[in-house]
Design brief:
Helix 24 packs antiparallel against helix 25 and helix 25 runs antiparallel to helix 26. It contains 34 helices and 13 strands. Strands 1, 2, 4, 5, 6, 8, 11 and 13 form an eight-stranded antiparallel beta sheet that branches. A five-stranded antiparallel beta sheet has the order 3-7-12-9-10. By secondary structure, it is an alpha+beta fold. About 50% of the residues lie in helices and about 10% in strands.
Length: about 750
């Protein structure tokens, strides 16, 4: 065996030769004396002695050091958790890079794992959940409900052996939740390069629970039955600015037991809810956070305060609901994704588990609301209305949630025609929130919908005393004044209300009545407001100012018989005009009192009365007893007897009568006038910019959605027969489904 000195001092050739030698000699081989290898350094440092004895590491020494290092790593990992050495500052810094509040995310997502009763999730909670620490003896008592499912499962689970790697276990819990949150809240940014058109929009969990609908497609499908110009009516009709969609024109539900109504024709100021006041199926639609913001917005004239309010989210969760936030979010996601039946089941289960949860019950009501629209079911909608009531009746309900629930209840009651029930709900809202002027404004609308203008007027006077610049109150107050024929007084309220730009003021009705009031007052600015209403999409044109329209229909003031396609009807009327005239004269006997004075505030002066045979497609059996042959004649023409947006009636006008310029409510009908008793001079009618006269036995046809005006300056009465027909371009399906007017 070579001496140790030779092994250390041998040349490079020795090193190479030993490489081809036996394995035993290889341990003594080294590099040249001028260059020490790492192995040599290690040998000198750890394995050698000055006397040259062998000092290399044995196999057992390697194993010993390996175990020491491994155990140090394990205990270091334990120490990170046990002594709270997690570097949360680094995690917070990363969270800020994603621009979201880590505290909110962690507590919102991990709060359900709070095991030590301190109200949040921290390392102590992790230790409890992983079996490293006993659960705190004094946990906060939950209000009369079961604990969240996740905590209950952990509590009941058998004790697990101590995890081998605690740090990895914690990281897996936290990173998984953070990863889901980042994808949900910032997925749009992270996937910006993904150009697939069907990419699903990510919605924040907070928006799910505050009710902020990013794309609530069900709300936009809403359409309601309505009776235009009736005191208890609610509609979903398209205005001139909207494209006609047959599906949204269809009646979703029939009105159930509507309150007693008094039919009003033409354009008398009888209140109808505006686009902004409708459900903004709705509720279903309507972004709830925006609703709260707009309502509070009306209460202040300070622009800075308005902006703060606008960005404020409604608070819909009480303390208990925050503990089941994850379960609420999961159920709400189903609703927002259109899985209505699944969402109903999910919320019903939550209500069963947590009967004291207001947010769970509100979610159930919303799902029932959506399901009613999907199935077109009044029965399901009645259930939703009741559930909204239950929400407001629970203890510890956030004020914003009470408002949303009762407002939605009121809207859906109006949808079913239950105007007086809706009014009671609005009265309760005002009692609960007496300082909220927006709710008082809604209550004023509720009174208008049942025709109680006097109480509505008192409400708006009260609002204007508190907030004199409230545009919503101004336009409605002006509307009431005009209905009371206080024309001059109504103008400034209508004008200033529209000019305020407040929510609910940019409505065709207010432009309509402001222009009408100005016309009657001789103010030449009337057509300026009609023009503005047209530019803002409320009117089809300056002349054609009907508010409840189907777009795309041919529009012209005067029509010929051939253009209408109703040749047989016109021929029958003209051929039998004397029979129709004689029956009309017979019922004109004032002692019978069958002709009723026009009471719609359309006359500047004079005497104008009517005798109605058909109204809204319904035959007046008693009236037809006075004109049986005329009614029998008309029975064969469904284009008129089935016209649910029109009337069939006699009209008598006496000398000295002037009818103000006005327009009918809809472009879905044409109006025929058959001359029966026509004085030789002094009677004329203007439609748009063309004036014509009647002839006995002849039919005039015009579109009364255009502005028209009548003068009776003859020396004797004028008698005509009015027959409304469907617009010829309406399809059979539209004629069957359009709501009645």
């Amino acid at each position: 065996m070579a001496p140790r000195k030779n092994a250390k001092g041998g040349g490079s050739g020795g090193a190479h030769s030993s490489g081809s030698g036996s394995g035993s000699s290889s341990t003594s081989a080294g590099s040249s004396s001028g260059s020490s290898s790492p192995g040599t350094r290690r040998e000198t440092k750890h394995g050698g002695h000055k006397n040259g004895r062998k000092g290399g590491l044995s196999g057992s020494s390697f194993f010993t050091w390996f175990m020491v290092i491994a155990l140090l790593g394990v205990w270091a990992s334990v120490a990170v958790v046990w002594f709270d050495l997690v570097d949360y500052e680094e995690v917070l810094a990363k969270a800020k890079d994603f621009r979201y509040n880590l505290s909110e995310v962690l507590q919102g997502k991990l709060g359900i794992y709070d095991a030590d009763g301190d109200g949040d999730f921290d390392v102590d909670d992790a230790k409890v959940l992983l079996g490293l620490k006993e659960r705190a003896a004094a946990e906060p008592t939950r209000p009369a409900g079961e604990p969240p499912a996740q905590v209950q499962e952990e509590r009941d689970a058998p004790a697990e052996p101590e995890p081998q790697n605690i740090e990895d276990e914690l990281k897996e819990h936290i990173q998984t939740l953070l990863h889901e949150t980042v994808l949900r809240e910032h997925g749009k940014d992270l996937l910006q390069e993904d150009k697939e058109p069907a990419r699903e929009q990510q919605v924040e969990d907070e928006d799910f629970l505050t009710g902020r609908d990013v794309d609530d497609k069900f709300e936009n499908l809403e359409a309601e039955t309505f009776h235009e110009e009736t005191e208890a009516s609610y509609h979903g009709e398209q205005t001139a600015s909207q494209d006609y969609n047959h599906d949204t024109e269809e009646i979703l539900y029939e009105q159930e037991n509507p309150d007693d109504v008094t039919y009003q024709d033409y354009d008398e100021p009888v209140y109808e809810p505006s686009e902004n006041e409708r459900i903004e199926i709705s509720d279903n639609t309507v972004e709830e956070s925006r609703i709260i913001a707009e309502e509070t917005n009306r209460k202040t004239d300070d622009p800075e305060q308005k902006e703060k309010v606008k960005n404020k989210k409604p608070k819909l969760l009480n303390k208990f609901d925050k503990t089941i936030k994850a379960e609420l979010i999961a159920a709400e996601k189903l609703r927002k994704r259109g899985k209505i039946e699944e969402a109903v089941n999910a919320f019903e289960e939550l209500v069963r588990k947590y009967p004291q949860s207001p947010r769970a019950r509100y979610g159930k009501a919303q799902c029932e609301d959506d399901l009613a629209e999907k199935r077109r079911s009044n029965e399901v909608l009645r259930g939703a209305i009741e559930t909204y009531q239950e929400v407001a009746s629970l203890p510890d309900v956030p004020a914003d949630l009470v408002k949303l629930s009762l407002k939605r209840r009121s809207e859906r009651q109006q949808f079913l025609g239950h105007m007086r029930g809706s009014l009671l709900t609005l009265q309760r809202l005002v009692q609960l929130f007496p300082s909220d002027t927006s709710l008082k404004n809604d209550l004023g609308v509720g009174y208008l919908l049942i025709g109680d203008n006097n109480n509505a007027k008192k409400i708006y006077e009260e609002v204007l005393n508190v907030t004199p610049n409230d545009g919503f109150a101004k336009v409605h107050y002006g509307f009431i004044l005009k209905a009371q024929n206080k024309i001059a007084e109504s103008i400034p309220y209508l004008k200033e209300g529209i000019e305020s730009g407040d929510p609910g003021t940019d409505d065709g009705r207010f432009y309509f009545h402001l222009g009408d009031a100005m016309q009657r007052a001789g103010n030449k600015e009337a057509y300026k407001w009609y023009e503005l209403g047209h530019k803002r999409g409320h009117f089809a044109s300056v002349w054609q100012r009907s508010l409840y329209n189907v777009n795309g229909l041919k529009a012209q003031p005067w029509w010929t018989t051939k253009e209408t396609g109703y040749t047989d009807l016109v021929k029958s009327l003209e051929r039998n005009w004397k029979l129709i005239r004689d029956e009309g004269l017979a019922v004109m006997d004032k002692t019978k009192g069958l002709f009723l004075p026009e009471d719609e505030n359309l006359r500047e002066k004079g005497d104008w009365s009517q005798f109605t045979l058909w109204q809204q497609g319904r035959k007046n059996e008693n009236a037809c007893k006075g004109a049986p042959k005329t009614c029998a004649l008309l029975e064969t023409f469904p284009e008129t007897t089935g016209c649910r947006r029109g009337q069939i009636k006699y009209s008598v006008m006496h000398p000295g009568t002037h009818v103000w310029p006005h327009t009918g409510p809809t472009n879905c009908r044409l109006r025929m006038h058959l001359g029966l008793v026509i004085p030789k001079e002094g009677c004329r009618i203007r439609c748009a910019n063309e004036t014509r006269t009647w002839e006995e036995g002849k039919v005039l046809i015009f579109d009364d959605s255009f502005e028209h005006e009548v003068w009776q300056d003859a020396s004797s009465f004028r008698l005509i027969f009015i027959v409304d027909v469907w617009h010829p371009e309406l399809t059979p399906q539209q004629r069957r489904t359009l709501p009645a007017i």
